[in-house]
Amino acid sequence: MLLADLDSYFRSVLPLEEFHRIDSSRNGLQVSRENPDVRRVAFAVDAAQQVFEEAAHWGADLLFVHHGLFWGREECVVGPRYRQLRTLFDHDMALYAVHLPLDAHLSVGNNAVMAEVLGLREVEPFGLVKGVPIGVAGTFPAPQQIDGVIRKLFGERFEPLAVLPFGRKEIRTVGLISGGAPLEVDQAIEQGLDLYITGDANHVAYHRCREAGINAIFGGHYATEIWGVQRMSERLATETMLDTTFLDVPSGM
Question: Which CATH superfamily is domain 3-98 in?
Fold first, then answer.
């Protein structure tokens, strides 16, 4: 597939332009390649040197990430940034980044896939960032306890950064915003949800949750943002003839 056609494919699935106003990430193709033909696509959460090296070892023509290299500001190409770009250039590997559009998408997004894994029903957009919903909220068909939710979503592989069991023992309603949204728990409180799940933890959120009587799981930024890139890898492999792989490089945070 030509690189331009692959860009069109990603844009047909993910509404990149709709998030231009609120997303500082340069969503889309961040680094091109000399050869316009793409046959192998690697997916990962972060644009980092370790990820670039693993993608190059696998033979990726393009690396699709959630956290790209460029965030709307100019940077000098020195030190680690130079080494990152040099790795891409040396292996003629393109870099494609999709940030908030991959959090918010209602079928391949981080939050939608987590809701699917949890078995939530009546899933709808939730969690406004500058007026745009990024997360989702839904309802368990039968009451769940917080330990069971943690096992279902993170298994034995990921240890949540913090768990605040300050709400109802039997959980029915859940709000999810992947990544860094600890203080958006206020929106879950306002909506009267039983449980709020996000990635990053925050000291201030502790007392807000305790005083409001809501359960919260701070699962880790990485652990809540593997879902979208994995689903996009699966979808691309199914809908095209391209080889895909997911590169699992956890940060522990």
Answer: NIF3 (NGG1p interacting factor 3)-like (3.40.1390.30)
Pairing of strands 121-129, 132-144: antiparallel
Tens-digit pLDDT profile for residues 7-45: 999 999 999 999 999 999 999 999 999 999 999 999 999
Q: How far apart, in whole angstroms, are the C-alpha atoms of residue 145 and residue 168?
A: 9
Q: Which amino acid is at 189?
A: I
Q: Helix, strand or coil for residue 123?
A: strand
Contact of 202 with 183, CB cutoff 8 Å: yes
Question: Domain map of the chain by residue range?
Answer: 3-98, 103-218
Give pTM, 2 decimals.
0.96
Alpha carbon distance 55, 87 (integer Å): 10
- Residues facing residue 173 across a β-bridge: 139
The DSSP bridge pattern shows strands 195-198 and 243-246 to be: unpaired
